[in-house]
Design brief:
Histidine-containing Protein, Chain: A, single chain, 4-stranded mixed β-sheet, 8 strands
Length: 227
């Protein structure tokens, strides 16, 4: 068991150094080995493969800087796309790429099309990074929240919570923490409620989901509530 853990760690480190995991760990704030305590190991490895495949395909498509503008987060086969694109057509192309990967069960679209007016804002990037760091720190010290099951992504002061919660109360606590951080405009949740990670069954691919204008959006799949 120890030997296998070491091999997995070496594999993950090699991926990080080679740049094949640009988003999944940044969003999760932890390692795949820790995720495996709740999720089956094959589920974690599958998410890493999906994230890497999507990012690699973005680089091959020839979109202008598409790879650097879109963040790809993957949890249990669910893909969350955040960031911005130049045109609506780029958004549709990005969604199609994500949908086409083996193992993807759902694509959540939170991309913003700016009609060619995309400019990098260093100040906003710094604010987003600070917001994410503050939320992760507060969630980490809350014993009622299983931190390793949450990803926190911040874009343009909008916070996206992604992952899985053990119950509604846990999700609400995480959402409240995020909404009370200074400069946060809105909190959007794409967190599912899962009582037992090891009892999850495969789901069929779905149509890409989009966010609403509500302050907190609970994207809880009814199929998971049964568990």
């Amino acid at each position: 068991m120890i030997k296998n853990s070491r091999l997995m760690l070496l594999f993950l480190l090699s991926c990080v150094l080679s740049g094949c995991l640009p988003v999944i760990f940044a969003g999760a704030g932890t390692s795949a080995l820790q995720f495996a305590k709740d999720r089956p190991a094959n589920n974690t490895v599958s998410d890493i493969r999906i994230s890497s495949a999507i990012s690699a395909e973005f680089m091959k498509t020839g979109f202008k800087n598409l790879y650097s503008k879109i963040s790809v987060s993957v949890f249990m086969g669910r893909v969350l796309l955040t960031g911005y694109v130049d045109q609506e057509s780029d958004m549709q192309k990005a969604i199609k790429i994500a949908e086409s990967q083996d193992g993807v069960v759902e694509v959540l679209n939170e991309l913003i099309a700016l009609d060619g007016k995309v400019k990098f804002d260093a100040g906003q990037y710094a604010r987003d990074t600070l917001i994410t760091t503050q939320i992760k720190s507060k969630i980490m010290v809350d014993r009622d929240i299983r931190t390793i099951n949450y990803m926190v992504i911040t874009f343009d002061s909008v916070v996206y919570l992604f992952g899985a919660a053990r119950n509604e109360e846990e999700l609400q606590k995480a959402a409240n923490i995020a909404s009370n951080i200074r400069s946060v405009k809105k909190v959007v949740s794409h967190v599912i409620i899962v009582d037992n990670f090891h009892s999850l069954k495969e789901k069929t691919p779905k149509t890409p989901s989009t966010s609403s204008n509500e302050i907190l959006v609970k994207d809880i799949d009814a199929e998971f509530d049964k568990y």
